[in-house]
Amino acid sequence: MTNANGRQNPLHVAIVGSGPSGFYAAEALLRSGRDVCVDLIERLPTPFGLVRSGVAPDHPKLKQSIQVFERVLREDRLRFFGNVTLGRDVSVRELQASHHAVILACGAQSDRRIGIPGEDLTGSHTATEFVGWYNGHPDFRDRTFDLSCKVAVIVGHGNVAADVCRILAKPVDDLRDSDIAEHALEALSHREIEEIHVIGRRGPVQAKFTPKELRELGEIKGASAYVDPAECHTGAQSDIELASPTNTFAAKNAEIFRSFAKPAPSAASRTIRFRFYRSPMALHGADCVKGMTLSCNDLTGPAFSQVARANGKQEEVACGLVFRSIGYRSVPIEGVPFDDTRGIVPNERGQVLDDGAPIPGLYVTGWQKRGPTGIIGTTRADSLETVESLLSDLDRISAATKPGTRALCTLLAERGVPVVDLDGWQAIDAAEIARGQPRGKPREKFTRVGEMLRLVSDADS
Ligand code: NAP
Known about the structure:
This protein is α/β, with parallel strands linked by helices. The protein contains 16 helices and 18 strands. It has helices at 20-30, 49-53, 65-73, 92-98, 127-134, 159-169, 182-188, 211-217, 236-243, 248-260, 367-370, 376-392, 394-397, 405-414, 422-436, 449-460; strands at 11-16, 36-41, 78-81, 101-104, 110-111, 124-126, 151-155, 195-199, 223-227, 270-275, 278-284, 291-300, 307-318, 321-324, 328-329, 347-348, 351-354, 357-364. The chain has a seven-stranded mixed beta sheet, with helices on both faces. A six-stranded parallel beta sheet has the order 6-14-7-8-10-9. The radius of gyration is 24 Å and the shape is globular. It binds NADP nicotinamide-adenine-dinucleotide phosphate (NAP). NADP nicotinamide-adenine-dinucleotide phosphate is lined by residues 59, 62, 112, 114, 155-161, 163, 200-202, 206, 208, 210, 213, 279, 325-328, 372-375.
């Protein structure tokens, strides 16, 4: 049987999720030398996942991977299906029936919870909400953050916490020429925050910031990064960690933290206070957050496995805004096994496992495969591994002819799903760039799905 392009039984692969892991998987398949058709399915009308709506607007270099992804999008063996939600518009089972293989690349769409009283009080937010809001993600467009308080607390010592802290602390004039959403710029221009506490449950050696991101927090105009010298201590096990030649980030971070350790914070308009050995125990407030109880911790266990243990002392921090930035978590998908403890889809080199047995033709990549760690580059190697697993199983999965793209188009048309294809995305892209120009921004994103669908429909007619 030949398909619409006159090709004999090409390999039909559906990839769900158009963030970096989905794109790197598509690229690997298209470069594999096989006759392959890739259908790239995305919940939003816009591609690029966290590169568009996670990477901070003032870090444009980290968005350069989009140039690679755009080339992949333009390949004629790839079809983009934007505005298609897995589980609502099409199921995994249907994709398994129409395609030889399905690769899940849905990322980690939820957040870990701390599990303390008051966590859901008004004024307590996940970092994801704030990041999505300032990046113009439609899911978070209407979130509000009380930026009129004087003290904000960020829980977590990772790069997402660093992003949140930088956007909270940076003068808006230093963000104006970025692709930050206009509603966020406007709200940030009225902020009254004077102090930002960045709280880590372990010590300076265990902080997960990369040195570049940490150093940047000490270089913000009008802000001063501060560490209480008495809190910046390390014990014998941490010293072993520090001395390890493979732990270069920790050594650099320790040096940066030492440079922040001053007798008292300088008189800047904003102070970023890094706190160590502190865990949130409860948030307080009648209607909204007014404060947080912290436990003071000691570290126990051997080097590289040290855990924080409350030592019985407690402290109170008065604050009006809290961001929990303690890592992401994948969400279960109907019809797909899920490891609830690790928050990932169980897999062996990307091949999805059900009770330890491989499910033929079902694969996973990115944060949904390995958990929410690593940068965009890490994801490339991860997706290559998943595609290798898929290709090593070709005899088994490609024996039958499958309808692929054709069946997916028919099914979505029958269900009346307004699919945004490559032309649709290019219309959105061009309009965003044009909207940004008068403001000196690389683009002004559309932040509502309805707006984007109307634009695509107008461009079609
Ligand atoms: P992360 O790097 O895993 O950091 C999470 C932080 O939360 C850690 O300090 C962790 O402390 C803390 N934490 C976890 N559970 C906690 C709890 N119950 N109570 C208190 N603290 C808790 O996660 P992330 O910041 O979300 O970043 C995710 C990935 O994206 C990382 O690989 C990051 O490098 C990457 N990223 C990169 C960039 C960039 O390159 N510019 C920007 C953003 C994100 P413990 O160490 O004690 O667990």
